[in-house]
Amino acid sequence: MADNVDLVAKKIESMKVRGARDIAIAAVEALRGVVEGGGRMPELTAAGERLKASRPSAISLPNAVDYTLYLAEGNKVLKGDDFRVKTLRDINDYLRSLNESIKKIADIGAGIIKDGDVILTHCNSDTAISILKKAWDEGKKIRVVCTEARPRHQGYLTARQLADHGIPTTLVIDSAVHWAIKALSVDKVIVGADTICANGDVVNKVGTAGIALCAHESDVDFFVAAESLKFSPQSLMGKMVKIEERDTKEVTELPGVAVRNPGFDVTESQYIDAIITEEGLMPPQAAYHLLKEKYGWELKKP
Ligand code: RI2
Asked: How far apart, in whole angstroms, are the C-alpha atoms of residue 241 and residue 243?
């Protein structure tokens, strides 16, 4: 297997590359490297398996790998350099479409934000951040509340990125969310997603489900920002998704005490007001229809 594929898989495992979208893009780029190096289906399939095994809870990763293999498969009758040239073109088009998707989501998401809104976000989602920055760039004077996202503190990245963009940003510890929604007068919650199931349940950074419950209690709208890459034809319900448990040393070491460190949790569709996708704003219950129309239950060319 190409050294670079293994290197990228290790970076995803160790979270040097992280974020559901970024790991998918890194995997596609690694597969592109295999094609550039003259690899064909056997090499691509082996590389894809290695990459898919690197993180279990974000469906964006296997979806992106499978779709890249599907593109290559469509070219496998081509001989010699023709396979390489055509597959590279297809992969580059795919990467471009992923860039377009996040821009569309930013436009659609910014449309639901009002001037003066206070928005709470969790962890570090490029997709959610793109919406917040777009709303700010449109002149909406928003304020953002970020969580820390223990144990790895990805929320610090979000806070830095938003503050550097000029957006007034407040950081709270994860357990202050219930307080923050009330005391800081939060109007909306916008989070990213790692996987969206066919029934509209959302798998995202651990803590998301609790935030959704707090938002529900305070009648605050709860939005998920995710491109169709995150939709899982294989996962009917959130409880069927394998939740990644990470090294407990990320949390603490207390001799004689068992520590658990789930990376994600499942927010049930009933607590989600809408999912912001590149196809538009949709109720979570419509996930089934998007999957059926776009993929026909299989990963096919969008
Ligand atoms: P984008 C992250 O996972 C967070 O759960 C975040 O909400 C999600 O990916 C989506 O991020 P991790 O890699 O794809 O930090 O929107 O475990 O960037």
From this structure: 6
The percentage of the chain sitting over the pLDDT mark of 70, rounded to a whole number, equals: 96
Average model confidence (pLDDT) for the chain? 93
List C-alpha distances in Å: 267 to 69, 101, 124, 193, 258: 31, 23, 17, 10, 25
Average pLDDT over residues 126-154: 98
Domain that holds residue 280: 104-294
1 — pLDDT class (breaks 50, 70, 90):
low
More confident residue, 57 or 64: 64
User: In this structure, are 121 and 92 located in the same domain?
Assistant: no
- 230 ligand 1 Cβ < 6 A: no
Residues 73 and 127 in one domain: no
Domain end residue (candidates: 102, 121, 143)? 102
Looking at the structure, do residues 275 and 166 belong to the same domain, yes or no?
A: yes
263 CB within 6 A, ligand 1: yes
Regarding whether 75 and 134 lie in a shared domain, the answer is no
Give the confidence band of 90 by pLDDT, cuts at 50, 70, 90: very high
- Tokens representing 37 are 């190096």
143 has pLDDT over 50: yes
Name the domain count of the chain. 2
Q: What is the DSSP letter of 17?
A: S
Bridge partner residues of 213 (DSSP): none
Predicted structure pTM score: 0.92
Residue 232 has pLDDT above 90, yes or no: no
Q: How far, in Å, is the centroid of ligand 1 from the Cα of 199?
A: 20
Within 107-255, strands assigned E span 118-121, 143-147, 169-172, 188-191, 195-196, 202-205, 221-225
Strand order in the sheet with 274-277: 169-172, 143-147, 118-121, 188-191, 221-225, 274-277, 280-282
CA of 18 to the centre of ligand 1 (A): 7
